[in-house]
Structure formats: structure tokens, C-alpha cells
């Protein structure tokens, strides 16, 4: 029996988040609330594709169409919004023999690409896949170019003390000193802290002449529309004054360091980012989470900071197909390519 690909029906849309939770290769940004928010805050038009084998769902694929003049592009995720991973996500492959799993995944992906080619007719396709995506071969067979990128994953399952002991000496010292400093507090905040973190990130990028197109309104929209705890703003205060923050995002057993963690310009006697990252991890351990995704390991300077938490290096991939000549003319190509290497916050 072949895999049927269809645009999500109303029933499929109501079941979509359940499909997300079933796939190990889907993350928070696959959720329907995120896709809807991206549609509201970008010029990209989304389509939710679902694959079925009989009555069983076998994969989901949110894809966005961008048009500029005569040029059409199919992308997942859209450019400029700092979404780390999106693209297709197979599901219901647990317990399958290798041959059957490969065949099902290949037919799902080929069916989605055929739908995209027929209905959107894009000159260019750009996808950024979730880390650990199971099999890139069907994409290479469909003439996609594959570009590897990296992130760091911290194992939280070891518990607080063993986790802290695994860090570099300077990180351990900074965290322990910070916990003993009564003038320094780190805590999870609320909606009102989202603009503070976003403003600090935006200003830091602007000072280094780096474009930062993620709208604060989009992030606050996600905070309000996603389930409680999906977006977690963490804030560090010194003598009651906010001096730094991180926006973490959470789904299942993983929490991710999405935005923030920029270097402070203030003179403070504390390692702000070490304390922020530690509080995110410590709280996640207490909630039973197993992984902290540091979101990006492609910048040598920033990696020196992230590696102090003893993470595991994990690959993910951007893939592209089509006419870069046409997309270069619109600036879309550079916008899409630029997001791949700039997921890490500016320090």
C-alpha cells in the first residue's frame, strides 16, 4: 500500500499536535500554534502536509511558500525568524524492521516533494531538519544538496550534582560563587520578561552589524498561544536590576536555549550566563527532562563558552534544491543561508 500525502484537513489540524508528540524528529516549532503564529508574523504562506498509510499517520511536513515577483520558494522554516529546526518529521516507525522503515520514510518524503513541486512549483527549496533526522538519502536522491551544521546537547539525566561536576572548572566555580552571592538572583519570569530578553539580543546584534529579524511580537504571541511552560523566560538580577536573560523553549523531554544569553555590558561581579544556563538546566532536571539543546555549535568563539557544559556534539542538516541564481536576485537565498550559521546568540 502506498503512502497518501494530503493537505491537512480540519480533522488533521485538530490532531496535528498529537502527531508532533509522536515523532522523535519533531520539536516545539512543529506545533500548530507556532505554524499559525509564523503565518501571522511573516510573509510566508504555510501548508500542513500529512502522510498516511491506510488510516495510520506516517509523517508531517509543514512547508511555507514565499513569493517575490515571479520567484517562488518552498521553505521550512521561513527565513529571519530564528527557528532552529523544522521540515519533515516521520512518525510511527518504532519497532519496524529496517527495510520497511526506510521504504515508508522514503515514500512519505517523495510524496511530499511531489506535492510541493506540483502545487507550489518552487524555483528553490530550502529545509532545515531536526537534529538526528533518520535518513538523508532520499533527499540526495532527489538532487538536494546537503549542508551539515552542529548543535550541542547536554545530558540532564545524570542529575544535578553529577551534571555540575561534569562542567569545566571555571563553570563550576562561577555557578557555586553565584549561588553564594545574595545580591544575585536567577529565576524563571513571565510574559513581561520576554521583551526585555529580546531587546537585549537585538541591541547586541545591531552593535555587531548583524541582522536580527525575529519580531518581539512573534515571541510574545508564541508565549501566549503555546501551552504554559513551552516558552520559559529566565532572568538574572543583580541588586534587583535585570542584567541578563534567556528564552528557553520546551517540548517533551528536551529544553532548548533559544534566545538570549548575550554578554552584558554592565560591570557585575557574577558570571551571568553561567548562572542563567545552570538555572535552566537545574529546573529542567527537577521536572524530569533529559536533554538541554544549546542550539548551535557552529561559531568557534561561542562554542568555547558552550563546551564548558560538557555537551555532546550533534549534527543537523540544511538541504536545498533549485536555482540559486533566481533566488540570489531577490535576496532570499542569502537570508535563508544566513540563518543556518547564526543560530547561536551573539556574545
Please tell me about this protein's structure.
The protein folds into two domains: 4-149 and 316-340, Aminopeptidase (3-Layer(aba) Sandwich), CATH 3.40.630.30; 152-313, Aminopeptidase (3-Layer(aba) Sandwich), CATH 3.40.630. Helices cover 37% and strands 27% of the residues. The model is unreliable at 340-347 (pLDDT under 50). The chain is globular and about 65 Å long. It has 347 residues and is α+β, with helices and mostly antiparallel strands. The protein is built from twelve helices and 13 strands. Strands 1, 2, 3, 4, 5, 6, 7, 8, 9, 10, 11, 12 and 13 form a 13-stranded mixed beta sheet that branches.
Count of domains:
2
Q: What is the terminal-to-terminal distance?
A: 52 Å
Backbone structural class: alpha+beta
Summed over residues and divided by their number, the pLDDT gives a mean of: 90
Q: What share of the residues lie within helices?
A: 25-40%
CATH architecture of the largest domain: 3-Layer(aba) Sandwich
Q: What is the count of helical runs?
A: 12
Task: Round the Cα radius of gyration to an integer and report it.
Answer: 21 Å
Q: And the CATH topology of the largest domain?
A: Aminopeptidase
CATH superfamily of the largest domain: Gcn5-related N-acetyltransferase (GNAT)
Low-confidence stretches: 340-347
Total number of strands: 13
Keywords:
347 residues; Aminopeptidase; 2 domains; 13-stranded mixed beta sheet; 37% helix
